[in-house]
Amino acid sequence: MNIWSALEPSQLINLAIIVPLIGAALVVLLGKYPNLRETASIGTAIILFTIVLGITDHTFNDVQMATSWVALLPGLEIAFLVEPLGVLFALVASFLWIITTVYAIGYMRGHNEANQTRFFCCFALAISTVMAICFSANLLTLFIFYELLTLSTYPLVTHAGNEDAKRGGRVYLGILLSTSIAFLLFAILGTWVTAGTLDFTPGGVFTNSQSSGLVALLLVLFCYGIGKAALMPFHRWLPAAMVAPTPVSALLHAVAVVKAGVFSILKIVIYIFGIDNLSQIATTDLMLYIGAATVLLSSCVAITKDNLKARLAYSTVSQLSYIIVGALLATSVAAAGASLHIVTHAVGKITLFFCAGAIMVAAHKKNISDMVGLGRKMPLTMIAFAVGSMSIIGLPPMAGTWSKWYLMVGALEADKLIIVGVLTISTLLNVAYLLPIPIKAFFNTETGQQPWSWSETKEAPLPMLIALGVTTVACLVLFFYPQPIIDLINLIPSVSTDTTGLS
Asked: Which of 122, 236, 449, 457 has its CA 20 to 30 A from that of 329?
């Protein structure tokens, strides 16, 4: 039952954006009382999730939800519209905000982090901008809140306040703002001049009467202008941001930032260019193969990294390009795989980052070479790491299996055998840089050691383990019960998981 059913649909959109802002204000007001502050954070996150569930219910019931805040110029307004792809992303972000907040409480206290009030406040502000991105009705609204997301997460990236954090923050801000101004802004202006509208429209906004060369250029500008998608060579901000605390890394990689990037590209492909028209655009294959190259090259770099968070960062660069590749394959099944990968990668990767933070808090280890035999001391954490790794790899019975399956089928449908090869090689590389970590932790022990006993264990604080447990279970549950997510994806225009017609 939808507890928000008494409200107007437009009010639900406003609430989804405003509730995290209220949460941020409460965090600041209760800053001197840590228990109350964190209760406010968790409470706000839970309320937001129920609101998004209400929006989801309306979406399945085909209720139209839209609202407008302000008209800047005729035809240009800050407006919001609920569509299934945005609902999917909102579900992921709002649910994982709850889990990440629980985790952050254990991490920030266990690590004795300073400026915790600022941390929880900026986290809430970031989620508010993400909700606005999810429900953007046009490119202008998307652009405004995309930039606000960058600015609200900058204090989180530089949280430590040391020179490394400041350097990472400069790279983060520099690349994301420069790509937005140099490419994304011009792409939006070009769309306005060419199509006469910035509204997200099922089937796309371009017609055959418009310049094919200009439309082809706009696709390149959008792909590189959305720097949060971390397409090479504009990916360096993501590894640079790993100086941030682990809950921030979870926010960057799974909850908000990078997902906002690939979500934006996917939404633009579906609602600005149109899946059915994409194959006729001259630069589609070019960007497709750049995405495929990013998949492989970043995986190769990941193998060379001994620092666990750095390895996971390059893994994310690779996995994000799965979504870009799925969008640019220009088939309904591939787009479905890309949409589903937003969800499956989120739960898998957040599990891995949660494990990395747990290891840092409990064992004070950052490098993989120092984690040999760690499974004896942190068995629960390393089991969770193994589950998250298998999900990222796409091994049954883990969530990542389904998104990779649909991407493979989509590549075959598009007759892109080279992409099938890329996805296969990438999966093998995933195995090479992820599975050795839990294997070494459990099976590489020093000679002469006594048999393992529970008395040896030294796990992270309980809130961190609870969060870890939830995301680990989610990796399993989404394999056995993916249908609700798949049903939502099938509501997206020109996107379908139906493979019965493929020969």
From this structure: 236
